[in-house]
Amino acid sequence: MDRAWTVRVLTLFPEMFPGPLGLSLAGRALENGIWSLEAVDIRSFARDKHRSVDDTPFGGGPGMVMRPDVLDAALTAATGGPEAAERGRVIYLSPRGRLLDQPLVRELAAEPVITLLCGRYEGVDERVLEVHRAEEVSLGDFVLSGGEPAALALIDAVVRLLPGVMGNEETAGEESFERGLLEYPHYTRPADWQGRTVPEVLLSGHHEKVRAWRLAEAERITRARRPDLWSRYEAAREAEEPRKRRRRDRVATME
Description:
Elements: E1 5-11, H1 24-31, E2 35-41, E3 54-55, E4 65-66, H2 68-79, E5 89-99, H3 102-109, E6 113-118, H4 126-131, E7 135-138, H5 148-159, H6 170-174, E8 192-193, E9 196-197, H7 207-225, H8 227-254
Parallel strand pairs: 1-2, 1-6, 5-6, 5-7
Antiparallel strand pairs: 3-4, 8-9
Helix pairs in contact: 3-5, 7-8
């Protein structure tokens, strides 16, 4: 068996892991060794008798900041340090980071190991991020009490892309964001429910018509609900059109 995808989570609350990741698809994959999880307790690297991990911010202001010496010790123990050959990517969950999207999820699924740093309080000392070359990743334009819920979401998104996790490997390619579009509507039995019927095309058995309907619905929903995604999708489609024409011309020439 290939080496399991590995994630290390540095947190003040290691008991939060695996949490929901121990259930359903992710839980079975964890049991089967498709991925592995190491929850590292940051507080165990504190050096004083009170096990302090934070201090007041220089320059004043409310809240507390996580100490660089404690975080450095935890990160070095987990990864081997910033110069370690196989340390993998280090990611700090932060609202000011790069937005977590499906392309980034696919990138992380291709990595053998990643390390997630979960902040608390007002955040972490900037210097430890610089020393360990941490990437900052955000779930969106909102603030959580800590990085742990974001870490759970990121791990779940990655694990479901790992080979052998999902029962139907084709399912992932049909989901929202995989083609730059939101997903089309779904229907199941009964075909007539409370006077609402399933679109006829889905009952036709005509696979090409079904595919065309699903694409049209995905485009309609994306255009209405996510203009930002729609603009990128249209730009990519326009950029692809000249390449398609060149391919058609080559085929016509060969014929």
